[in-house]
Amino acid sequence: MQIRAETLVLEGDAKDMICQAVEQMHVDLLVVGSRGLGKIKRAFLGSVSDYCAHHAKCPILIVRPPKEITS
């Protein structure tokens, strides 16, 4: 089994550009990070990962930031 990954640098609104690239490139899986914004900040700023989860035409994996380790 071979896994191919690509990195793209695109100009424009991130959520729209990601979803367009997914469709044009026939992507099998989209992996995006989450900054871990709270609900209030996410409501005002919007969430790229949330938008992609609802609009990308392929499965999506959202990687959340690691929990802080307290000692």
Automatic annotation (TrEMBL):
It holds the Pfam family Usp. Residues 5-64 form the UspA domain. The lineage of its organism: Eukaryota, Viridiplantae, Streptophyta, Embryophyta, Tracheophyta. It comes from the Eukaryota. Transmembrane segments: none annotated. This is UspA domain-containing protein. SUPFAM superfamilies: Adenine nucleotide alpha hydrolases-like. InterPro entries: Rossmann-like_a/b/a_fold (IPR014729), Universal_stress_UspA (IPR006015), UspA (IPR006016).
